[in-house]
Design a protein that fits this description.
This protein has one domain. The protein has a three-stranded antiparallel sheet. β1 and β2 (about 45) form a beta hairpin. The protein has helices at about 10-15, 20-30; strands at about 35-40, 45, 50-55. It contains two helices and three strands. It starts with 7 loop residues before the first helix and ends with a strand. It is of the alpha+beta class. About 40% of the residues lie in helices and about 20% in strands.
Length: about 60
């Protein structure tokens, strides 16, 4: 069983994405449907076997 982050940590991830130029570029491409990423509730996710959330600084 995996745990899902809730509350404040999700807000911190959203905030970090706004300051990361690479993440901002990927978010733009995801909105265009041109990458293996999607944006959900302000967070950037990648398609694949694992649930991965990209945050600023990682």
């Amino acid at each position: 069983m995996t745990s899902q982050p809730q509350g404040d940590i999700m807000d911190l991830l959203r905030e970090g994405l706004q300051h990361d130029p690479v993440a901002k570029s990927l978010i733009a491409l995801a909105h265009e449907g041109r990458q293996r990423f999607w944006v959900e509730d302000g967070l950037l996710y990648t398609k694949g076997d694992d649930s991965t959330c990209l945050s600023g600084g990682t």
